[in-house]
Structures are given as C-alpha cells and as structure tokens.
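Priority: low. Protein: Phosphoserine aminotransferase. Input follows.
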Amino acid sequence: VYNFSAGPSMLPLSVLQKAQSELLEYGSSGQSVMEMSHRSSVYDAIIVETEAALRRVLNIPDNYKVGFIQGGASTQFAMVPMNLMTTGEADYLVTGQFSGKAAKEAEKFGTVHVVASSKDKNFTYIPDVDAVEYSPNASYIHICENNTIYGTRFTKLPQVDGIPLVADMSSCILSRPTDVSKYGLIYFGVQKNVAPAGMAVAIVREDLLENARTDLARPAMLDYKTLIDARSMYNTPNCWSIYMMGLVLHWIENEVGGLTEMEKRNNAKAQLLYDYLDQSSFFQNPVNKADRSIMNVTFASPSKELDAKFCQEAAEAGLVNLKGHRSVGGMRASIYNAMPLDGVQALVAFMKEFEARNG
Ligand code: PLP
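Result:
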C-alpha cells in the first residue's frame, strides 16, 4: 500500500531491504544490531557514522553538537526551556498544536511570551515573522517549522540579533537543504523522515550548551551537555533507531543525491497534489497558499460523510492512513521523503475518480 500516515511513516524500500539483509547478522559480527552492546567497537562505528552522515547531509557547522535523545520531540518541549531559558523568559510563535504544547511545557520553567499565534483562523496560516514584536529579554525564540496537523510551514525564519532560534523540525527535517547556522537549536522526533519511532535528535550550537541555565537542577537525562558529552551514550541509547537513521542518511546521500535533489522530488509531489486541489470544485485545501507545507497536505470534501467514504474507499484501493487529524477533520496526505511520486500520482488519480462519482 501507499501509506500517507503523519508518523510513524513510510521508510524507503531499499532501506528496509538493507535492514532486513542485516537483521540477523550485522557485517561479520555474529550479532544483530539489536543484540549488540552499545559499548562495543562494532556499535561505536555505527553511531559515529550516523552522526557523520547527518553532518554531511545537513552540512552542520563544526560549532554545533548532535545528540541522539530518547523521549521523542515531546521531551524536547521540556528540555529546551530547562537548558536554554537562561533569562527566565522565551518567545513562542504558536502555529499549531505542537508549538502550543511546547509553549505550555515551557511555562513550567519560566515566563513564556506567545508573541504570535494563528489560532484565530484554526492555524491555517503562518504569521508574518517580520511583523512580530520579539521580547528583548527572551533567551530564545521557538517555532514549529512545519505544522504536521494543519499542513503549514514557515518559509521565512524569525532572525533577531543575539536571540537564538529554536525550531521543532520533526515533520520537515531532511526534506530540503537547511542552513543550520540560522538556528541555535534544531530538534526533531525521528519517526517521519528519519528512522523508526523512539528517538529525537537535537543539533545544538556549542555556546548554548556551554552557557546553559544554572538556576535549575536538571535530571542528568534531561541535560543536553551531559548527554552530548557522553556521545549520546550516557545511558543505553536507542541503538536500533540510530542504526536505521544511518541507513536513511546513506539513502539520501547515495540514492537520492542529497537534499537539493530531495527537495526537488518533494516539491514535485506536493505541486502535483496542490495543482489538482486548486482546480477541483469538490476538494478544498484550507491553507493560505504561501504557507503550504510540502510534507503534509490537508484537504476536505463537501461533507463529513463523503470524507469518511473517501477514506474508506481509498484504503480499499491501497491508499491508507488518509484520515485528517481529529482536531481538523477531513483528510491529510503526509508525503514525506520516502513517499514515491507514484504514490501521489495514484492518490490524485483516485481523487479524480472519486470526484467524478460523487461530485
Ligand atoms: N512536533 C511535531 C511537529 C510533530 O509532528 C510531532 C508528532 O507528530 C511532535 C512534535 C511530537 O513528537 P513525539 O511523538 O516524538 O513526541
């Protein structure tokens, strides 16, 4: 089937095949990756190469550190203020449920200024980042760069001198080239574009690690510096997810040809779907055109009954997990990196046929 799930989502077929071929024995180690000591030299080579591949693919500058951290992106909602809110204040742009949750979590650790929100229009647009009044005393500015539930994304980043930008990139990381130097910290749950569920990655500018908040006693497991200084092996890491992440990065490097090519593919898929939606008088996409996500595409038919019928018949045709998030309704097609163009073509063909029968 073509799986349009918002996450966990599809992995590239060749990655799954490679993992399958190595499942029982990795190299000539006599062991599966799932059975290895994370302190062994065989596993060490895996984690070192996964980080190196991430650095190559994203072109991460040397003054940024990488951490493989358990607890998903949701734990990052707390870790960011626990470590980075040095002034006791931070700015949050609330453009959906996840940035709302991040702001709520941060309130437990200091003063949160919600300096912009798109809640007034059910998060169907991204506020103008240049019109926002940022707080002079904010420790950082937090955004969720791609809003998985609503199908919006930032195309312009808040950039304020001396105030680091923190971005949740869970549903857009590795979808296109990213200038890491524009951020103080990037984090993402891996379960959409990167690896099987069960881990998040943080890319942190060194000076923010070194000058972390000192007024708060953090559990060691929630301290970026402790985890990163221990090379993400302060405790037993998610060995399997890290290994799979390495395979996905090699796929992007060697089969796709890097992030510029990845972006071209993703743009082509999204364009196909949006072009169809724009000429359809049956399906509607509610999002402000300039803010449309290339990863999550939301749409709805004229009624809830037809939405339900669409999802059911699409599933029968091998197009699964198209139901929209419960807070939005309608449909959502998540077309992450691993979704081939064929999948989107099949979806558009099915939508046309459904429209002809029910329109
Ligand atoms: N942030 C974004 C943008 C997401 O899409 C999600 C999950 O779907 C999360 C955060 C939460 O991630 P996790 O389930 O890894 O905590």
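The chain has a mean pLDDT of 98. The two ends are 26 Å apart (CA to CA).
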